[in-house]
């Protein structure tokens, strides 16, 4: 089975995660997909295959060399984003993309256009897998799963390539921030690992946001509007005032690179009570802490004007993995070398988001992130070039091969 065949089969599984179920996995489709993958791994003859009750699937490609090679792992997630439906995904391949618009859905006039997505022009002449415009595609992260399995199959078909023990894992609920919560690092047993969950070709990431979530709860006082003077406190208006106090330009739509932000992701309110839901992000830990303090300051300021009306619920979600990767930068160097040998120029950049690898790094498994090849994740305009997936597979094979070769030659990697 080719990598493309695998991917096209995988995206047919509806594996959207759901933050409201309080279960692991959060949706039954993820376990159905995991059971299917377990069967595929068994048919390949992999060893130490386990699937626990929470949907964490792990397996081993045993070593075929005598050198004492560190155990390396590769990880991808089963779920797709809740942002858009992943049910009845209907992919198609645009062969030898000539440039220009791709009509995804004639009936609904849904068009994937370089005028809105100029990165499309980076793939002229390549074969693009696209949606029919009514669902996301699921390359995030079913491309990663297909790439990992295909890399293992390639190594099995080429026993002349010497390698150490390789562990692979597929976990649920990454898209709702819970993918690493029940990941058994000790059972996985790798010295380090890579998540295959990045975007375009060449991406290599070992920095991510520090992250917190916050709810600002504003209590009002509802009085008949005809007699409300000096009595009513309209929590919606107070909430609007609070929103305006935060820096206008420190939002996702005005920031890039290492710039952090406050992101208002939800408002739910009546005159009596309004809740503002925020996420807070910054790569720099000191600035991250400063942002949280600013939110606390604004709550106090609001309460000075409207005594006792405003409360804050805030909790950290994850931290920048850089501090855990810097002591083991050789694993970044290894990935860069593997990319160059695959004809890919590494693009080391910060993740403007989170990753399972960040949480796993803080659980004792250093775990940077490598490209899976897709573009425009989480929506109807998602696409993935077949050639990008093949490059990702090649990078996995090269990491495994180079790691063994360096140990056999007693080269410090």
Describe the structure.
This protein has helices spanning 3-10, 28-44, 139-157, 185-188, 235-245, 285-305, 322-325, 330-341, 356-362, 386-408, and strands at 47-51, 57-61, 72-77, 92-94, 102-105, 110-112, 128-130, 166-171, 192-198, 203-205, 210-219, 261-269, 273-282, 310-318, 347-348, 369-371, 383-385. By secondary structure, it is α+β, with helices and mostly antiparallel strands. An eight-stranded mixed sheet has the order 1-2-8-3-9-16-10-15, covered by helices on one side. A four-stranded antiparallel sheet has the order 12-13-11-14, covered by helices on one side. It has a three-stranded antiparallel sheet with strand order 4-7-17. β12 (261-269) and β13 (273-282) form a beta hairpin. α1 (3-10) runs antiparallel to α3 (139-157), α3 (139-157) packs across α10 and α8 (330-341) crosses α10 (386-408). The longest helix is centred in the C-terminal third of the chain and has 23 residues, at 386-408. The mean pLDDT is 96.
